[in-house]
Amino acid sequence: MLKVNDINVYYGAIHAVKGVSLEVKEGEIVTLIGANGAGKSTVLQTVSGLMKSRTGNISFMDSGIAGLPPHKIVERGLAHVPEGRRIFLRMTVRENLDMGAYTRHGSSVHDDLEKVYGLFPRLQERRKQVAGTLSGGEQQMLAMGRALMSRPKLLMLDEPSMGLAPILVEQIFAIIQDMNKNGSTILLVEQNAQMALSIADRGYVLETGSINISGPGKELLESDEIRKAYLGG
């Protein structure tokens, strides 16, 4: 579904992403783990058109998307939930969800709104509430729900558990698994390597801008090298 081949991304003179290649197949949960500053978010931003790579190519559903503006990439079915959620704080929950569907038209938008409310009942309860007054966990649910309103074929999630209490982290990961079971293919960037690898079909480990290990999620979870570096063991 998604193929990233040999991307190199710079911030000025800083070489942030170095020759990264990865792929996500339809129906998978694939995770990208690594230390803070390893380049994980930059990879997602490059896929979604917010950053540009100097080399390589990116294809989605067998079509090249490198160089397309971000809204055109969303229209093709690739949605990005950014680090820090980036919801519209002064809009209501319902208005945020409506904004997620801005590339779409027709009655099916209402059907998808009901599906999002089914997945996130808290959002339905708070649909008239101003988004900036929600808790951190509720804001994360809203960011995910807003992305789902674009009806994505592939959903990219950047640090969905950041800043959340452990019980909410478990809830968010359960929702990610539910979304996957309901047909969403997911590329997950996450610092909580234990949780990410436990639900992922496959994983990639990014170190200082380069992928140095990849494999099935369960194998990476059991790897001594990964345990020492990322799992505190």
Written account of the structure:
By secondary structure, the protein is of the alpha/beta class. Helices cover 38% and strands 25% of the residues. The protein has 10 helices and 10 strands. The chain has helices at 40-47, 70-75, 93-100, 108-119, 121-125, 136-148, 166-181, 193-199, 217-222, 224-230, and strands at 2-11, 14-24, 29-33, 57-60, 63-64, 78-81, 154-158, 185-189, 202-207, 210-216. The strands form 2 sheets. The chain has a 6-stranded mixed beta sheet with strand order 6-7-8-3-9-10, with helices on both faces. Strands 2-1-4-5 form a 4-stranded antiparallel beta sheet, with helices on one face. Strand 1 and strand 2 form a beta hairpin. Helix 3 packs parallel to helix 6. The longest helix is centred in the C-terminal third of the chain and has 16 residues, at 166-181. The relative contact order is 0.18.
Quick gist of this model?
The chain has helices spanning 40-47, 70-75, 93-100, 108-119, 121-125, 136-148, 166-181, 193-199, 217-222, 224-230; strands at residues 2-11, 14-24, 29-33, 57-60, 63-64, 78-81, 154-158, 185-189, 202-207, 210-216. The chain has 233 residues and is α/β, with parallel strands linked by helices. Helix 3 packs parallel to helix 6 (136-148).
